[in-house]
Amino acid sequence: MQNLTESQLQEIAESRSARSSTRRATSEGLEALMFEPAPVLDKGFVRVVDYMGDDAAVVQGARVSYGRGTRAVQSDRGLIRYLMRHRHTTPFELCELKLHVRAPIFVTRQWFRHRTASINEYSARYSVLEREFYVPDAGSVAAQSASNRQGRGETMAPAEATRVVEMLRDDAARCYDNYLWMLNEGEDGQARDETRQGVARELARINLPVGIYTQFYWKVNLWNLLRFLSLRADPHAQAEIRAFAEVIAAMVKAWVPDVHQAFSDYVMNATTLSGQATALLRAALAAPGPVDPASFGLSGRELRELVETVPELEGRILVGTRS
Ligand SMILES: Cc1cc2nc3c(=O)[nH]c(=O)nc-3n(C[C@H](O)[C@H](O)[C@H](O)COP(=O)(O)OP(=O)(O)OC[C@H]3O[C@@H](n4cnc5c(N)ncnc54)[C@H](O)[C@@H]3O)c2cc1C
Fold first, then answer.
1. CA–CA distance, 148 with 152 (Å, rounded to integer)
2. What residues contact 19, with CB distance under 8 A and at least 6 apart?
C-alpha cells in the first residue's frame, strides 16, 4: 500500500478502529473513508483526517437555524442547488475538510497556489526526505503539445518513452545518493563516516528534484475546496494534480452528496457563455438558415470553443467566415 511502513499502517488501523461519541453532525459516507489512504500516482495518497459539517450544515447555516433543520429533504436539496446556482458562497464555507496528502513537490507547487487553505508541510530542514520519487508510466509519457503551450500532446513512441522513464529514475537515484552522502547518512539514518559531520539538511535538500514526494496537512473550507476542484479536476489541469483532485472529488461526493451533485450540475458540467456567444446562439436558433458569426465579435478561438461546447452550431454558422 503506497510504500507505507508497518508502523504507519498500524497507526492508521488504530485511528480507524477508535470510536468517540459526539453531538456534532457526522457524514456516514465520509466516516467510512476516514484515515484510510486513497492511493494516487505511483506512491502518493490522500486521506481524510478530520472534517466538520455535512449537507445539512450548509442548509442550517443558510437559514441561520437553531436546530439541525426542520424542512423536508427535498426542500433542503433545493436550497443547496439554489445557493450553488447563484454562487451564494458563505453557507458552504461553514463546512471544513482536513486532509493528509503525500504528493510530488511539482504537484504541491501548483496545489499551494490555492491560498485560501491552511497548510503544514513536512520540513526538509528538520527531517530527512524519503527516497520516494514520482516516475510516470512509460505509457503516459507524451510530447509537448503543439496547440497548447501548457500541455501534453501525442504519447511518445515506446522506446523513447522508456528512455525518458529510465532517465527520470536514474537521475533521481543519483541525486538522492548524493543527498545522503552530503548528509553523511545511510538509508538506515545512521552516520556513514564517523569522521565527517555532514552538511545541514536545509542545504543538502537543494540537490533533490521536484519529482520527490513531500507530505502535508491541508485544511480548507468546502467552498474553497470546490474552487480547487473546479480548476484542478478540469481537463486543462496537469494530469498529476488532476489525479489527486479526482480522488478528493470522490471524497466530497461521499461527504456531502447533495452539494457534490449541485457542484457537478452548476459548475463542473456547466458552461459559461459570454454576451457575444449568447447573442450568436440566440441568432442561430432563431434564423431559418446559417448565421454569419463575423458580426458578433467573437475571436476565432472563442468561436472554436463555443462550437466544441455546442456542436449543433456547426451547421448553423456560415463556414469560412470565422475569424
Ligand atoms: C490550468 C492552470 C494553469 C495555471 N497556470 C499558471 C501559471 O502559468 N502561472 C501562475 O503563476 N499560476 C498559474 N495558475 C495558478 C492560478 O493563476 C491560481 O493562482 C490558482 O489556480 C489558485 O486559484 P485561486 O486564486 O482562485 O485560489 P485561492 O488562492 O484559493 O483563492 C480563492 C479565491 O479567493 C480570492 N482571493 C484569494 N487571495 C486573494 C487576494 N490576495 N486578493 C484578492 N482575492 C483573493 C479570489 O477570489 C480567489 O479566486 C494556473 C492554474 C491553473 C488551474
1. 8
2. none
d(CA 319, CA 115): 44
For residue 323, the model assigns a pLDDT of 45
In this prediction, residues 167-172 reach a mean pLDDT of 96
Task: Note the pTM of the prediction, 2 decimals.
Answer: 0.93
pLDDT at 318 (0 to 100): 85
- Answer yes or no: is the C-beta of 230 below 6 A from any ligand 1 atom: no
CA of 90 to the centre of ligand 1 (A): 19
Alpha carbon 154 to chain centroid distance?
23
- Residue 143 scores a pLDDT above 90: no
Which residue has the least CA distance to atom 41 on ligand 1? 115
- Which residue's CA is the nearest one to ligand 1's atom 32? 116
pLDDT, tens digit, 9 for 90 and up, residues 5-53: 999 999 999 999 999 899 998 999 999 999 999 999 999 999 999 999 9
115 Cβ inside 6 Å of ligand 1: yes
Over the chain, what is the mean pLDDT? 92
> Using a 6 Å cutoff on CB, does residue 113 contact ligand 1?
yes
> Which of 116, 150, 226 is the best mutation target for the ligand 1 pocket, counting ligand atoms within 8 Å of the beta carbon and taking the most?
116
By the 10 Å C-beta count (0-12 exposed, 13-18 middle, 19+ buried), 200 is classed as exposed
Q: Name which residue sits closest to atom 34 of ligand 1, judged by CA.
A: 116
Q: Whose CA is nearest to atom 5 of ligand 1?
A: 150
What domains sit in the chain, N to C, each tagged with a CATH number?
6-127+213-268 (3.30.1360.170), 142-207 (no CATH), 275-316 (no CATH)
Set 232, 282, 301, 316: catalytic member: 232
| φ/ψ of residue 89, rounded to 5 | -80, -35
Q: For position 157, what pLDDT does the model report? A: 85
232 as an active site residue: the answer is yes
Confidence of residue 70 (pLDDT cuts 50, 70, 90): low
